[in-house]
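Folding Task

Wanted — backbone structure
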Amino acid sequence: MSRVHDILRGDREQSLRKQWYLKIHDGTIYGPVDLAVLCDWAGQSRIAPGNFISENRIEWFPAQELPDLKMEWQARLPSGETYGPFNVLAVPHLVQNGILPAESTLTNKLTSKILHVRDILKPAQTHHSEDGTKLHHEQTGKAPSEQHSIDSGSPLLREAEIQRTGAGHASNRGL
């Protein structure tokens, strides 16, 4: 077996204690951080396709190979190009950052489940000031199309909550 498989096969409790490093496209390295932080970063789209992780900064492997990161979704963009893999919790961030248009189709690489981005996002919510008056996007700094989250009625909500509670919550250190 390869070193990557040995790392990934390790005891879950030991895996939670491990310290990880993340290398992004420009060569910048973040860490050390624990697995919970890496999972949070994946859910916040801070770990992008093509990023690498390591325990020792010597042996690097693609971030999506670490099953705990749940980077199992691929998007087909309206242009026909693909983007991924990424964690499903990252979808609102990817839409807000202009990476995923609402017309994109998502496919889970493990289950072959297919979803449309527009079907899993909540519509933009109107913001209210402290006195109860509606604030328009000029006052909030975000256009309504930039305000997204996963719809509470979405079939992904349960999956997202399982991922969130399975990985635990941690602070965002370093990235």
Residues 134-148, 151-173 have pLDDT under 50 and may be disordered.
